[in-house]
Design a protein that fits this description.
204 residues, Arc Repressor Mutant, subunit A, Tetracycline Repressor, domain 2, flat, transcription regulation, DNA-binding transcription factor activity
């Protein structure tokens, strides 16, 4: 019997399977992916560099959904804001992948290209080199935390029969409009950008 015209596995199918497992259970293992694909575990190592390689493929897959076209095309603050919104949406679609990616260094070339573009935007705007990465890291902390919040229930505080014990909280919750996660993200993003502008103004 000859080889099948379509390979049983390739990097794309491995990545898709791993992402499906992470979305469902928050984790994956190489043997589990092999079982899902109906192949031997050893076969996967012909296509990927073990678990670490699969994690990086997951990063690349999720980050493909980020629109980075505004980096370098808009003023620095508008570019960062647009990038942040798209970045958040991409990870909000797969929030359970965030802990896996946060524990591994970024190596995927396409993802590094986005960071290169973001660094270029900040340097061109006049930020000091020593400030560039802390600006990006601060923005990412906001983005990823908000992506997790976006995947959370709309109602995160359930007072029940104890509402009388927390009247101030009950009042604040009653006044809260729908879309709390989006509103909180935009408020925090505005605050970050304001601080970044101040930092830029203070740059010698």
């Amino acid at each position: 019997m000859g080889r099948p015209r379509t390979p049983l596995i390739d990097r794309d199918r491995i990545t898709a399977t791993a992402l499906r497992l992470v979305d469902a259970q928050g984790e994956f293992s190489v043997p589990q992916i092999a079982r899902e694909l109906g192949v031997r575990t050893a076969s996967l190592y012909h296509h990927v560099d073990g678990r670490d390689g699969i994690v990086e493929l997951l990063r690349e897959r999720v980050c493909q959904a980020i629109d980075a076209s505004m980096l370098g095309a808009l003023p620095w603050d508008a570019a960062l804001a647009g990038w942040a919104r798209s970045y958040r949406a991409a990870f909000a679609a797969h929030p359970r992948v965030i802990p896996l990616l946060m524990a591994a260094p970024v190596r995927a070339p396409r993802v590094l290209d986005q960071y290169e573009a973001a660094v270029g935007v900040l340097l061109d705007a006049g930020f000091a080199p020593a400030d560039v990465m802390r600006v990006i890291i601060a923005l990412e902390n906001l983005i990823l935390g908000s992506a997790l919040d976006l995947a959370a229930p709309e109602t995160m505080w359930e007072l029940g029969d104890g509402a009388d014990d927390t009247p101030l909280l009950a009042r604040a919750l009653a006044a809260q409009p729908e879309g709390r996660a989006d509103a909180a993200f935009e408020l925090a993003l505005d605050a970050c950008l304001d601080r970044f502008r101040t930092l830029l103004d203070e740059t010698p």
